[in-house]
Amino acid sequence: MLEIRPVTHAPNKDDYCIVYAGNDTVQIAGAAPGELWLRRDVETQFAHLNTELPVGYWQSTPCYAVSVSADQLDMSRHLPLNLFGLLGRIDDDVFALHGRAHQILSWRQDHRFCGRCGGEMAFSDGGRALECAPCRLLVYPRLHPCVIVAVGQGDKLLLAAAKGRRINFYSTLAGFIEPGETAEEAVAREVKEEVGIEVTNVRYFASQPWPFPSQLMLGYLADYAGGELVPDEEEIEDAGWFSPEDLPPIPPNWSIAGRLIEQFFNERAQAR
């Protein structure tokens, strides 16, 4: 289990590392998906580390996010793998660890200089923030809250296919929370904007970190309240009401969307 707390000492050879080259996590060839490196192996196999940042503690041992240049990879020993490729293949706790490492490295890369005065940023608050020395601006890792909602009408569930997706499947509706909104207000607005209907009885279900690059998905269930289903042509390819017997291709149940779909139909089955 990941413990998110400051790592206050310098790395040692027995600490854990997660290695990234660009957006790809780097696995040791032949290792199990998501397996962590020991720092002594990182030092042996890579001559230069671009960035090394504390992630927290994994199984009570410090863990670091490490970035290396792609030209240091030896394809006979190293296997680059897109983070999305680990979804569903590894335990949720291990995926959360990899996702946190990816987000922290992206945060450091994107905030090398202060957005207010242009000064160089340095670590502060035990490594949990970046601070600008000239103007004292503090920047913490960026997180984008999103809502995702399963809308039901009787025994049928609203599912939609997003426009322009390479993977052709139907899913629940989702969108970012706007400044000044509650999550529940964002649910109602997103549903109205994307398919033109009203919802009621909005209720929280669960959340899931979604590090692509830095979202937190807040899952909700809601009931149809009125209106005609009119998909937004710019965002939605198709939308409709589906029963368990006529489901189109849907996300797997290790995703928050898949779990919402499963929860909706389980609730309807139990109510019969």
Q: What does this 3D model show about the protein?
A:
With 272 residues, the protein is of the alpha+beta class. It has three domains: 2-110, Nucleoside Triphosphate Pyrophosphohydrolase, CATH 3.90.79; 113-142, no CATH class; 144-271, Alpha-Beta Complex (Nucleoside Triphosphate Pyrophosphohydrolase), CATH 3.90.79. It is built from four helices and 16 strands. The strands form three sheets. Strands 1, 2, 3, 4, 5, 6 and 7 form a seven-stranded mixed sheet that branches. Strands 11, 12, 13, 14, 15 and 16 form a six-stranded mixed sheet that branches. The longest helix has 19 residues, at 92-110. The chain is globular, with a radius of gyration of 22 Å. The two termini are 39 Å apart. The mean pLDDT is 93.
